[in-house]
């Protein structure tokens, strides 16, 4: 979060050099969220949207919703807040190239970084002008409905349930289902509407009976596949080793059997 604040200072310097808004901009300095300042016809457009939480929200959509949407061949409307166009950071995130574990590259200017967070800071400071801050396009705002905290494991499981917050998230969740998958748009929209409620909205209750993403997603099958592959790769050499040892054992036994009559013959001859 410190990095964001540093970037913010950079932005403030940038804006204040071109406009007399230093005083108002400095007021934003205390906030943690990534802030993008944009002035348009003497108005300051200030968007505060967490890149990290937006990324988590996107990951959730990609893993736990998109596989079902793709299966239904349902075109998500751009009016739906889950549509990729409604993610402020989508374009920048797509321009992040992960070359190796410690090698990240900026797709706009090809500069290299050894960790994703440094590339994030670079995006915030160097390419913030590429962010489309018009309208409400902050995917992180949907985090309450999409269970980002559950995904990021930021909330302790022992935390007390807040009924008001749960009700708010449940309402947001249902409104997303209604706007993204309107039931009057046909059977596939109805099925996805139902799925969305089960997958995301049911878990917004204090009873704790329902877990988020109850219908599963892409990642789970991916992990299973990976686990099976690794297990097979590990067991294969063990299998060959057993076969080899067994065959060697057999060979030694037959050699021993051949040697015994020879020894007997020698004893008779002498
Ligand atoms: Zn760059």
Automatic annotation (TrEMBL):
What sections of the protein cross the membrane?
Answer: 223-245
Is-annotated flag, keyword Cell cycle? no
Any idea which GO molecular function terms this record carries? transcription cis-regulatory region binding; zinc ion binding
Keywords (A to Z) from UniProt: Membrane, Metal-binding, Transmembrane, Transmembrane helix, Zinc, Zinc-finger
Q: Which domain of life is it from?
A: Eukaryota
Supply the InterPro entries for this chain.
Znf_C2H2_type
The keyword Nucleus is assigned to this record: no
Q: Which residues form the C2H2-type domain?
A: 104-127
Which PANTHER family does the annotation name?
RE51073P (PTHR21385:SF0), ZINC FINGER PROTEIN-RELATED (PTHR21385)
What this protein is called in its record is C2H2-type domain-containing protein
């Amino acid at each position: 979060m410190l990095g964001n604040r540093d970037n913010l200072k950079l932005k403030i310097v940038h804006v204040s050099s071109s406009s007399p808004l230093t005083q108002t901009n400095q007021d934003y300095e205390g906030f943690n969220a990534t802030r993008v300042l944009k002035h348009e016809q003497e108005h300051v457009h200030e968007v505060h949207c967490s890149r990290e939480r937006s990324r988590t929200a996107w990951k959730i959509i990609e893993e736990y919703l998109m596989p079902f949407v793709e299966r239904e061949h349902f075109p998500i409307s751009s009016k739906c807040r889950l549509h990729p166009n409604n993610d402020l950071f989508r374009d920048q995130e797509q321009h992040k190239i992960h070359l190796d574990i410690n090698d990240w590259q900026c797709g706009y200017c090809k500069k290299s970084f050894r960790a994703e967070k440094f590339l994030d800071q670079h995006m915030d400071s160097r390419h913030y002008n590429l962010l489309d801050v018009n309208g409400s396009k902050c995917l992180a705002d949907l985090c309450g409905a999409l269970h980002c905290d559950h995904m990021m494991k930021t909330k302790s499981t022992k935390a007390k349930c807040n009924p008001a917050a749960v009700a708010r998230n449940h309402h947001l969740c249902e409104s997303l289902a209604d706007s993204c998958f309107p039931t009057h748009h046909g059977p596939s929209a109805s099925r996805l509407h139902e799925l969305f409620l089960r997958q995301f909205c049911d878990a917004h209750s204090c009873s704790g009976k329902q877990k988020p993403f109850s219908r599963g997603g892409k990642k789970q099958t991916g992990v299973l596949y990976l686990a099976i592959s690794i297990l097979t790769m590990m067991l294969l050499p063990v299998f060959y080793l057993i076969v080899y040892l067994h065959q060697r054992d057999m060979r030694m036994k037959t050699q021993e059997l051949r040697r015994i009559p020879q020894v007997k013959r020698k004893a008779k001859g002498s």
